[in-house]
Amino acid sequence: MVEWFGSTVVATGRLPLFCFFVAFVAGFLLIRMSVRMIRAGVTWWPGNLRPGGLHIHHVVFGVGLMMVGGVAALLITDRQGAPIAVAAGLFGLGAALVLDEFALILHLRDVYWTEQGRASVDAVFVAVALTGLLLTGFRPFGWDWFHGAGPGGAWQTAAQAGLMVLALVNLAGSVVSLLKGKIWTGLTGVFLPAISVVAAIRLAVPGSPWARWRYPAGSAKLDQAVRRDRRIRRPLIKVKIRVQELIAGRHDLEPAVETGQGEAPGTADSPAVLSRAV
């Protein structure tokens, strides 16, 4: 195991990324365990931090850890030693705390346990998937050509130019896929060619920016997109939500006015929260 780690992670320069990934996953699991304990009203578990009645969300600590880890990483010149590993780990831990409250940042209000709060879990899952791909050696399509292109003959230069054009087309397909609401397909297409281009050609997800711009109400394209969404996409979304709920808890509270208490509308010892705690 030690030999494998040295040859696969350290020797390839992926030690900082590995430490970031491990700290990110561990940080997310730990903070989700903590907030679920708070939501369930476990008496022996430390509650929310509220000095002077001010609830300090864990995103605040995440920003601080990211600053410390990020600045330290800029100062450390040895990219394979323990200092850079620690800095990357701090940055990963901070990133987990920040993305776990991504929905709060997006909506500028506490929606942690509401339906809108699922955006935080989605953001974490996307970050884990992308970091995992990078850690295993995947690179965006065309990365090697952009960074490894050197002087060569006319045919070699023309071939490199053609491959770069294909990479740009693939990247454009990923952008269009994201605008069409196909988040996972668009991101996967950055690494695997053609997937994003196919997704960009197909119908958009109802409610996506592309659908709002290009599919007028009552149009045949919108009706077809809605039918396809109900038949294919929504069953997959339900499966994804079940998996997320096993890890992160149920986002089942109704949006409410700010109460200034707890991790979400309602306090950890509130009957409404206790009745829905996972």
How would you characterize the overall build of this protein?
There is one protein chain. The chain is mostly helical and 278 residues long. It has a domain at 1-114 and 251-278. The protein has 13 helices and no strands. Helix 2 (15-39) packs antiparallel against helix 6 (118-135), helix 8 (154-179) packs antiparallel against helix 9 and helix 9 runs antiparallel to helix 10 (195-201). The two termini are 37 Å apart.
Overall geometry comes to flat
Provide a count of the helices: 13
Termini separation: 37 Å
Q: Averaged pLDDT, please?
A: 85
Question: What percentage of residues falls in helices of 4 or more residues?
Answer: 55-70%
Number of strands: 0
Radius of gyration, rounded? 22 Å
Structural class: mainly alpha
Region (Disordered): 257-278
Transmembrane segments: 15-35, 56-76, 82-107, 119-138, 158-179, 186-205
Protein name: Integral membrane protein
Keywords: Membrane, Transmembrane, Transmembrane helix
What key phrases describe this protein's structure?
membrane; mainly alpha; transmembrane helix; transmembrane; flat; single chain; 66% helix; 278 residues; 0% strand
Compose a concise summary of this entry.
The chain has a domain at 1-114 and 251-278. Helices cover 66% and strands 0% of the residues.
